């Protein structure tokens, strides 16, 4: 049963809307203004909110802004009087799904609009991933055969998987592959990067929060674990978790339940867990920086992804698959690789692995004038050196890291938080490295 909230300062409108929607089997609550609506939204999780724009006190536009910020999963439909279409369009720009003009002549039209809004909500929950679409798992190299065999076997179970490997080796692609091959494939795939958020924000991101749980928590918000119900939860860079969050995650893995931040309601965690890290967790355990009991809970089924330099047979097929996605991303037509470009790609050391290969191809796709990319279009430090240096050359770790950071900053227009997320490191770690490499 769907849960709806109708917000309007006119009693007659509230009665009409709630009656028309309740007759369809929905649970409908009503509020006379935005302030009352936020109070109700802090107590219950609504699928759709229908709100008037003009109300005394907290109006519909202010309510929309708060809900969009605090409960982005809620679908909002605005009600507007004749002649206020411009306000309704502005509301849609701020995140409203649709609008309907008052007076509402046809209850059937209203029900159809709400049905579409509920379908939008259902699809959004299924797509509740926080990361962009990744290319399919591409393989063929001998070193990938045992990896693929292991992923296929474990996908048929609900066993927790720990993906190990260097940064950029495609751990999220492997996690999505496990999801796609599993019985949970029709459920959501939700990913969270533990290195991208502070401890407080990450806790709320994972488990959600209740209204008033902390400063700025104006309404209840469901966390990503809750949104992933029935699907797969991918916990990337799990080695970056703080001790406090390690303890909370251990309880979720052991008991399969959790509470929202500031809440007491026990919620079932119906998810399949896949974690990933490039850090040596065993060393962190020995140093006391990572809980041994949590390590054993996560490492039930470890899988190590080989670096790209150890699976060179896959570079060509990977480049073709990535280039097709890149061409769409940069709004180009179909792109192909010339033979000299393929030779450059095959010879490069790829310290940044598949992620670096994708970045090189994206830059080339933007710079190239024609539909065939040549070696000259692969204008990156790694590719250029691979073309000019003797066989066996490889950059130092410092050079490779500096280049990767500079490329990430360029890709995200200098946005350091996005660059840190792209690199899979914490924001403070990025600032330290920027200072170390004099990158500003």
Number of helices: 19
**CATH architectural category of the largest domain:** 3-Layer(aba) Sandwich
Domains, number: 3
Low-confidence stretches: 128-134, 380-397
CATH class of the largest domain: Alpha Beta
Helix content: 40-55%
Shape: globular
Tell me the CATH superfamily of the largest domain.
P-loop containing nucleotide triphosphate hydrolases
Tell me what the structure shows:
This protein has 440 residues and is an alpha/beta fold. The protein folds into 3 domains: 124 residues, Rossmann fold (3-Layer(aba) Sandwich); 165 residues, Rossmann fold (3-Layer(aba) Sandwich); 128 residues, Helicase, Ruva Protein, domain 3 (Orthogonal Bundle). The protein is 46% helix and 14% strand. It has 19 helices and 16 strands. Helix 6 crosses helix 7 and helix 14 crosses helix 16. The longest helix has 20 residues. The N and C termini lie far apart (53 Å). About 6% of the residues have low confidence.
State the main characteristics.
five-stranded parallel sheet, alpha/beta, Helicase, Ruva Protein, domain 3, Rossmann fold, 16 strands, 14% strand, 440 residues, 3 domains, single chain, 46% helix, globular
Set down the secondary structure blueprint.
Elements (H helix, E strand, L loop, with lengths): L2 E5 L3 H12 L4 E5 L2 H8 L6 E5 L7 H11 L4 E7 L3 H9 L4 E5 L4 H20 L18 H11 L5 E4 L6 H10 L8 E5 L5 H9 E2 L11 E2 L1 H4 L4 E5 L6 H13 L1 E2 L8 E2 L3 E6 L3 H7 L4 H7 L2 E4 L10 H15 L6 E2 L1 H9 L5 H15 L4 E2 L7 H8 L8 H15 L4 H8 L3 H10 L4
Parallel strand pairs: 1-2, 1-3, 3-4, 4-5, 6-13, 6-14, 7-10, 10-13, 15-16
Antiparallel strand pairs: 8-9, 11-12
């Amino acid at each position: 049963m769907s849960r709806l909230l109708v917000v309007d300062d006119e009693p007659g409108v509230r009665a009409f809307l709630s009656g028309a929607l309740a007759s369809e089997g929905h649970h409908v609550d009503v509020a006379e203004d935005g302030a009352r609506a936020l109070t109700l939204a802090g107590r219950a999780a609504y699928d759709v909110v229908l709100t008037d724009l003009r109300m005394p006190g907290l109006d519909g536009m202010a309510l929309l802004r708060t809900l969009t910020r605090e409960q982005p999963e809620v679908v909002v439909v605005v009600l507007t009087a004749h002649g206020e279409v411009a306000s309704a369009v502005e509301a849609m720009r701020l995140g409203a799904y649709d609008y309907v003009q008052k007076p509402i002549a046809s209850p059937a039209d209203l029900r159809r609009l709400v049905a579409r809004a509920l379908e939008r909500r259902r699809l959004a929950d299924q797509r509740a991933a926080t990361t962009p679409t990744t290319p399919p798992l591409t393989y063929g190299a001998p070193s990938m055969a045992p990896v693929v065999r292991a992923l296929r076997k474990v996908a048929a179970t609900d066993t927790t998987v720990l993906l190990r490997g260097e940064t950029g080796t495609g751990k999220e692609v492997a996690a999505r592959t496990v999801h796609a091959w599993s019985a949970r494939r029709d459920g959501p795939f939700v990913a969270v990067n533990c290195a991208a958020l502070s401890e407080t924000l990450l806790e709320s991101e994972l488990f959600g929060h209740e209204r008033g749980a902390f400063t700025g928590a104006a309404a209840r918000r469901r966390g990503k674990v809750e949104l992933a119900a029935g699907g797969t939860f991918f916990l990337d860079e799990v080695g970056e978790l703080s001790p406090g969050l390690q303890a909370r995650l251990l309880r979720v893995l052991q008991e399969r339940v959790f509470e929202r931040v500031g809440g007491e309601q026990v919620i079932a965690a119906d998810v399949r867990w896949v974690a990933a890290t490039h850090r040596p967790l065993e060393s962190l355990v020995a140093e006391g920086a990572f809980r041994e009991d949590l390590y054993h809970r996560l490492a039930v089924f470890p899988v190590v992804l080989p670096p790209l330099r150890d699976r060179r047979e896959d570079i060509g097929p990977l480049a073709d698959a990535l280039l097709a996605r890149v061409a769409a991303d940069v709004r180009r037509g179909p792109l192909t690789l010339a033979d000299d470009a393929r030779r450059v790609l095959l010879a490069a050391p790829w310290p940044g692995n598949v992620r670096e290969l994708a970045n090189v191809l994206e830059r080339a796709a933007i710079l190239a004038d024609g539909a065939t990319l040549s070696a000259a279009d692969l204008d990156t430090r790694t590719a250029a050196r691979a073309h000019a240096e003797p066989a066996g050359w490889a950059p130092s770790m410092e050079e490779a890291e500096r280049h990767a950071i500079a490329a990430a900053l360029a890709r995200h227009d200098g946005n350091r938080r996005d660059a840190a997320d792209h690199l899979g490191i914490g924001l403070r770690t990025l600032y330290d490295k920027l200072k170390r490499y004099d990158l500003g």
